[in-house]
Structure formats: structure tokens, C-alpha cells
Specification:
The structure is a single chain. This protein is mainly β. Helix content is about 0%, strand content about 50%. The strands form 3 sheets. Strands 2, 4, 5, 6, 9, 12 and 13 form a 7-stranded mixed sheet that branches. Strands 1-3-8-7 form a 4-stranded antiparallel sheet, with no helix packed on it. β4 and β5 form a beta hairpin.
């Protein structure tokens, strides 16, 4: 599985950006897919995730109500719509995917992993910079 993230850029506080993550190599219908971000000097942190089978979504408290994760199964693509961006959202954003972790297959269970170790496949990052 190969993941390719795009859509980052420079935006003023209060603005919006839409990130995309294109998957290739196989269909990810039964996968969990997520977005993580890493700011300079900080650890990579969970942002949002989706269970592709159930379409249930999960968000970090810091982005809940501002970000929306979605997927286009026909195009095998993951999106992250980021609204009301804040300078604290500045980071490198990466997409990730996994069919299972710790014995849980995400095509069978309506959940997602929230930690980086739960994901098997990672895309390269895309920089998001929010100016104040």
C-alpha cells in the first residue's frame, strides 16, 4: 500500500485547507485510515480517523468541530477538511492506514487505532502553516 498526501500550504488564521491522501496498491475498503500531525519539537499526534467499512469518524479534542475527515471509496482517497485554522495547527500532516492492529480487524469492528503504532502504512507529510 502506498499513500500520497497533498494539499498543505500557508493560510491565515481562520482560513481553511483540504488535505488529500491518495492510496494505491490495493483497495482499502476494510481499513482504518487516519491523519496525524507533528509540530517542530513535538511528538506526532492523532488528529482524526475513519473506519472505512462503517464510515464512523473520530477526532482529537483539539480539532473537533473544526476538522472533518472523509473518504471517497471509489477513488481510494482520504480527505481532511480543516476549517477555522489556528496557528497551533501548524505542523506536518501525515496520513496512515491499517487493516488491523493487535488482532482487531477494522472490517469487522467499528473502531480505529488512535496511536501511531496501530498503523502499518504511512504517507509522506504535507506541511500546513497557519499564520496569525
Amino acid at each position: 500500500v502506498q499513500l500520497q498526501a497533498s494539499g498543505g500550504g500557508l493560510v491565515q488564521a481562520g482560513g481553511s485547507l483540504r488535505l488529500s491522501c491518495s492510496a494505491s496498491g490495493r483497495t482499502l475498503d476494510s481499513y482504518a485510515m487516519g491523519w496525524f500531525r507533528q509540530a517542530p519539537g513535538k511528538e506526532r499526534e492523532f488528529v482524526a480517523a475513519i473506519n472505512r467499512r462503517s464510515s464512523n469518524t473520530y477526532y482529537a479534542d483539539s480539532v473537533k468541530g473544526r476538522f472533518i475527515i472523509s473518504s471517497d471509496n471509489a477513488k481510494n482517497t482520504l480527505f481532511l477538511q480543516m476549517n477555522r485554522l489556528e496557528p497551533e495547527d501548524t505542523a506536518v500532516y501525515c496520513c496512515a492506514a491499517t487493516p488491523s492492529s493487535s488482532g482487531t480487524y477494522y472490517g469487522d469492528y467499528n473502531t480505529v487505532p488512535f496511536g501511531t503504532r496501530g498503523y502499518d502504512y504511512w504517507g509522506q507529510g504535507t506541511q500546513v502553516t497557519v499564520s496569525s
